[in-house]
Each structure stands twice: as C-alpha cells, then as structure tokens.
Specification:
The protein has 126 residues and is mostly helical. Helices cover 45% and strands 8% of the residues. It has helices spanning 4-7, 15-19, 23-31, 49-56, 90-98, 104-125, and strands spanning 2-3, 35-38, 43-46. The chain has a three-stranded mixed beta sheet. A hairpin with a 4-residue loop joins strand 2 (35-38) and strand 3 (43-46). The termini are far apart.
C-alpha cells in the first residue's frame, strides 16, 4: 500500500488529470504498490486488475454504499439512489431483476437505435 505521504500526492482527484493522459500515472501505480490511499480526497485507488476483482468480491471490507465515483466524494449518497450504491447480498437481488434488460439478444435489438442516436449526437458537435 502506498499513500500520499510516502509517494507524493498523485492528481487522481483532479478532473484535469482524467481529461489528459492518465496512463503514465496508472503504470506507476501498478509498478509500485497497486493500492494507493489518496488522503486529501479520502479515497482508495486500486490499479491492478486482480486487486480490482478482489475488492469487488469483498463487500465486508470494501463497500459501494459510500460512493463509487469521484463526484460521489462531494455529495451525500442516498440509500437506494442507484444499484451502484447497494452492496451484496442485496445488490444481487436487484441485479437479477434488471439483468434481462442487458442480455445479448435485448442489446442486439437496440443496436440500430443506439448507433443512430450516437451518430446524431456526435454529428451535432461537428
């Protein structure tokens, strides 16, 4: 585990960082200790795939109910606001309810509409 005092503050909470090229910092995190504590913003960053999987499977230690996005740091998280903020085992119940809407067949039927809508929105920028 690395924290800001040991490695120097990384700009992980700065929106400009994510708008630029964050990959050199991500490589640095993976090369060092992939678990990084951003004390100034109050969150943990997990950089290695295996560690992300381990965190996602350990709701006793790591929870989603206090937020999952950087923008969540600046606002209160309300119960039942989104399935993203519900921890297991309750999360599984809701996921089972919505999963059919994300099946391969259902998404295939929406592909044309998604493509058309995306093109229209992107063309509006051009």
């Amino acid at each position: 585990m690395v924290n800001e005092s040991e490695s120097g503050a990384l700009p992980l909470a700065d929106p400009a960082f994510h708008a630029g090229d964050p990959f050199p910092v991500y490589r640095r995190l993976r090369a060092q200790d992939a678990l990084y504590r951003c004390e100034t913003a109050g969150f943990w960053a997990v950089a290695r795939h295996a560690d992300v999987i381990a965190v996602s499977r350990d709701p006793e230690t790591f929870c989603s109910s206090r937020g999952t996005l950087l923008s969540d740091l600046e606002r209160p998280i309300l119960p039942r606001q989104s399935i993203l903020y519900i921890d297991p085992p309750e999360h599984g119940k809701y996921r089972k309810l919505v999963q059919p809407a994300f099946s391969r067949g259902r998404l295939r039927t929406l592909e044309g509409w998604i493509r058309e809508t995306t093109c229209r929105l992107l063309d509006a920028f051009g």
